[in-house]
Amino acid sequence: MTRFLFCFLALWIVSCGEKDSDSSSVIFAGEIVNPTNDKIVLFRGDEALDTAYLDQFNRFAIKLDSVVEGLHHFQHLPEEQYVYLEKGDSIQLRLNTINFDESLVFSGTGEEINNFMVEMFLTDETEERLVYKFYKLEPGVFATKIDSLKSSKLQSLETLYQENSLSEGAYQMAKAGIEYGSYIYMEAYPFYHRKKTGEKIFHSLPEDFYDYRESINYNNEGLTYLRPYYNFMKYHLGNLSFMGCKKNCGDIKLGENQLHFNQHKLKLIDSLVKQKELRDNLFRNVAVDYLLKYDNEENIGKFIADFHKLSGNNSHMGEINTLYEGIKRMQPSKQLPELVLYSAEEQPIALSELTHGKKTVFYFWSGSEMGHFKNMSRRIAKLKTKYPKYNFIGINLRTDMNRWKSLVESQNLSPTEQYWAKDYDTFRHSLIISEPNKSIIAKDGIILDAFANVYQSF
Ligand SMILES: [Zn+2]
Disulfide engineering: 294 pairs with which of 28, 194, 429, 451, CB 3.0-4.6 Å? Predict the structure, then answer.
């Protein structure tokens, strides 16, 4: 990976673009090989700035009159990736969806920072596996290893910066990405170390282990959507909440008391983070995470009350309320939502109708994730043998109907046990489909367990 990085460094030296400093407009264009849909959407934060459709050569172009310099991201669903934009940039990208991140290359003005960011992103993926092995080391040794990984990346960045090809803003952002990325490992260490060594208590840490915490900036607006920064915040708040509770709340078993633990997190975000977007996003993250884990109705009510109290003006409030209402509707003994599925003969049928007279287990799959589909099929085959009286029904999501029909045929699936959902978002929101192995158990239109899992619930 490091060698790859240096290739890139060598490349940009010979192919530096000229920035048009007189113009504030920005051109973001490129080519998508093997597109998975017909468009590219450019975002700054949560705001979609523009959408471009691919032409017959799978090329697109977006022109903006001006930009706020900084991190943006583009989506070509189901994937997305960063792009750093500055005034006057004219940047081209090329990618192949079969290897989305690995194939992504930028050229033109702004290529240096963007290729560097992609490299860092890919390095992080490899690094995670390496660091996972380091977690069993003693804390001092671990900290040294993490520090040296960080230093070598900062060194590459420094070289790039000294060639004067990066703006100050781009340099600072890339630097923050490297630093916060390495701090994530430090925050995670106590938990993974205990898990990997099987130690009964948390290993005591050297006094300087968390020294970097003095330099944390909780209010840097430009970093809100930078993945290492945001992920760091999640780990950091998790660590602080857990350790704080352990120290101050006595005999609370956190694993069994998700409400208590998540209430700590809400209070902590409230006290530490003032920058509105980051604060809203972190509050939202805790809420979604907690609500989807599923707790009883009384507890989720208490949580939502706290959420409203501390984050009443949250910009994601609509989404949180909808999720909360949805979860309340999916409690045991309530009616299944009124949703329509289609059979392989393209006949509509109500979801609840499929549950008449028999305990029915719904599971979900998509034509674009065949690895998951194969695992799921094996698991369902086992469950069918174990529970011959149950009905198992696969619901296909996010797949073109004709492709789904041909998969039902080619995979030898029984057409009476397979149905197709037209509108993914409606299904996802009404049935609260938050993870790939989710299942829903119902009978005669009544919910028995809407938060089951094909691996854990049987
Ligand atoms: Zn506590």
Answer: 451
Task: Verify cis geometry, omega within 30 degrees of 0, for the bond prior to 78.
Answer: yes
What pLDDT does 10 receive? Answer: 37
* Centre of ligand 1 from the C-alpha of residue 110, in Å: 47
User: What is the Å distance from ligand 1's center to 319 Cα?
Assistant: 27
**pLDDT (mean) for 232-261:** 87
More confident residue, 309 or 121: 309
Cα(139)–Cα(132) distance, integer angstroms: 14
Confidence at residue 425, expressed as pLDDT on a 0 to 100 scale: 83
The alpha carbon of 20 and the centre of ligand 1 are apart by a number of angstroms equal to 55
Rounded to the nearest angstrom, the distance between the alpha carbon of 177 and the centre of ligand 1 is 31
What separation in Å is there between the alpha carbon of 257 and the centre of ligand 1?
9
417-447 pLDDT, tens digit each: 999 999 888 898 899 898 899 999 999 999 9
pLDDT band at 414 (very low <50, low <70, confident <90, very high): very high
Domain residue spans of the chain: 2-16+23-162, 171-177+201-329, 340-453
Q: What does the pLDDT look like over 94-125, one tens digit per residue? A: 999 888 888 899 999 888 899 998 988 888 88
Q: How does residue 22 score in pLDDT terms, banded at 50, 70 and 90?
A: low
Rounded to an integer, what distance in angstroms lies between the CA atom of residue 56 and that of residue 54?
7
Nearest-angstrom CA–CA distance, 319 and 54:
30
The CA radius of gyration of the chain, in Å to the nearest whole number, is 25
Amino acid at position 192, single letter: Y
| Strands (DSSP E) found in 246-308 | none
* 340-453, CATH topology level: Glutaredoxin (3.40.30)
Q: Write down the H helix ranges in 90-226.
A: 100-103, 111-134, 139-162, 168-197
Question: Of 210, 208, 295, 228, which is closest to residue 260 (Cα–Cα)?
Answer: 295
Judge if pTM exceeds 0.70. Answer: yes
Q: 3-class secondary structure for 392-437?
A: EEEEEECCCHHHHHHHHHHCCCCHHHEEECCCHHHHHHHHCCCCCC
* Distance between Cα 83 and ligand 1 center (Å): 40
Ligand 1 centroid distance, CA of 288 (Å): 20
Mean pLDDT taken over the chain: 90
**What is the Cα 359 distance to its own chain's centre?**
33
405 C-alpha to center of ligand 1: Å? 51
CA 258 to ligand 1 centroid distance, Å = 10
pLDDT recorded at residue 398? 87
- Residue 256 CA to ligand 1 centre (angstroms): 12
Instruction: Supply 60's token pair.
Output: 């697109």
